[in-house]
Write a structure and sequence with these properties.
Blueprint lengths: L3 H6 L5 E6 L17 E2 L2 E2 H10 L6 E6 L4 H7 L9 E2 L4 H12 L6 E6 L7 H10 L5 E7 L4 E4 L5 E5 L5 E10 H10 L8 H7 L4 E5 L10 H13 L3 E16 L2 E4 L2 E4 L2 E3 L7 H13 L5 H4 L13 H13 L3 E10 L9 H12 L6 E6 L5 H4 L3 E13 L3
Parallel strand pairs: 1-4, 1-6, 4-5, 7-11, 16-17
Antiparallel strand pairs: 2-3, 6-10, 7-10, 8-9, 12-15, 12-18, 13-14, 16-18
Helix pairs in contact: 4-6, 6-7, 9-11
Length: 399
């Protein structure tokens, strides 16, 4: 990709990718919008941007976003040379128009409009779209419908079978002559159209169809995210690592403990240099062990006063950061708490949710269990708590 300076110095001869990331991703759920959810260790948005940045015909990239997502955006695009982002609108159509208007002073020749929720766009699709613009003002990537289509009627029954001949499923990117699509969006202001090809059609532009890719899926559900991960794993050499961790803290006088990131009322506390969260300490060791990075004491020595009373989520997040720095990600963790008291069961779901939040995992990828030693040993005598943890990590092969 040419640098940003080139995008402004060759007016009328550039191709710019406009990536629409202004949605809030409410259907998928989760703590962050779907375009910022992690996919194989990187935000979904970053996958899109990396693929456009790697294509030699793309001279510049601009993202449309919501202002409240700016911190997430800055983290996702770190290290990329992009045009300054622009604020989106209340609808996708408005967001695209804002993006196009912000590019008008650069006078690009072509623009590719792409949804950030499609992270796996491939270079061949981009090539076909740009080739189509040699003879058309607009072109979309699409795939023919091969399934039998039914239209539902009253009571959830089939009303009619729809003829699938000539029907295609539209994807993005969608490619356009810049001046033509900007004019079409200005003319369509106030309308509510489902994609930019519809805007082009309404303006009388002929829209060419080019073959898309079945792998160019849109992330809408957790199942889509899982499929995208499988596709990425299938296309890259990866290895799976497993690490284990174990930690013990003794009881001292107090009124509660921190365990797996959750405050648990109790008639004792745990002794430790930080907040003595044995659950997060064992988990941190498990993650570090999976990448051969030593243990928690090596990175956060108890002799260092800066860690006194420290929230142990800091240690776990730092371990995840070391995995990410090697191009990997934590896939799943399993924690077993060993004690007679306090009872972990009432707090188990909250602990699993807190661990998932700390590590940036999807729900269901963090597990917390509890057991006793049937009155045997130091835990059986109520002298302290032991925790063991296992972490599964995916790394690039040789990472």
């Amino acid at each position: 990709m040419a640098n940003v300076q080139a995008a402004s110095s060759v007016p009328g001869m550039t191709t710019i990718a406009l990536v629409v990331a202004a949605g809030r991703g409410e259907r998928l759920g989760g703590a962050v919008p779907k375009q910022y959810r992690l996919l194989a260790g990187k935000p979904v948005l970053r996958h899109c941007l990396d693929r456009f940045a790697a294509h030699p015909a793309i001279d510049a990239i601009k993202v449309v976003l919501q202002p409240e997502h700016r911190v997430l955006y800055d983290d996702a695009v770190r290290g990329l040379a992009l045009l300054d982002p622009v604020t989106g609108g209340a609808t996708r159509q408005q967001s695209v128009r804002h993006g196009l208007e912000s590019l008008a002073d650069r006078n690009p020749r072509n623009v590719l409009i792409h949804d950030a929720a499609r992270p796996l766009v491939d270079a061949a699709t981009i090539d076909r779209l740009l080739a189509a613009l040699d003879t058309a003002k607009a072109a979309i990537a699409a795939s023919p419908i091969t399934d039998t289509l039914k239209r539902a009627g009253a009571g959830g029954r089939v009303a009619v079978t729809v003829d699938r001949a000539g029907l295609w499923r539209a994807q993005t990117p969608q490619a356009f002559d810049f001046d033509a699509i900007l004019a079409a969006h200005r003319a369509a202001a106030g309308a509510d159209m489902t994609d930019d090809a519809a805007v082009a059609e309404a303006a009388g532009l002929g829209v060419a169809l080019v073959a898309g890719s079945e792998d160019n899926l849109k992330i809408t559900t957790e199942a889509d995210l899982a499929r995208a991960e499988r596709l990425l794993a299938a296309g890259a050499a990866v290895e799976w690592r497993t690490g284990s961790g174990f930690d013990v803290h003794r009881f001292v006088p107090g009124d509660g403990i921190m365990l797996c990131g959750v405050r648990v009322p109790h008639d004792r506390s745990l002794e430790g240099h930080s907040d003595a969260d044995a659950g997060l300490h064992a988990l941190t060791d498990a993650i570090l062990g999976a990448i051969g990075a030593g243990d928690i004491g090596l990175h956060f020595p108890p002799s260092d006063p800066q860690w006194r009373g420290k929230d142990s989520s800091h240690f776990a997040r730092a371990a995840v950061g070391l995995v990410a720095a090697r191009g990997g990600r934590v896939v799943h963790v399993d924690v077993t708490v060993i004690c007679e008291r306090p009872k972990v069961g009432p707090h188990r779901e909250a602990m699993a949710a807190r661990i998932a939040d700390i590590l940036g995992l999807e729900p269901g990828r963090a597990s917390v269990k509890a057991t006793t030693t049937e009155g045997l040993g130091f835990t059986g005598r109520g002298e302290g708590i032991a925790v063991q943890a296992v972490a599964t990590v995916m790394l690039p092969a040789g990472g």
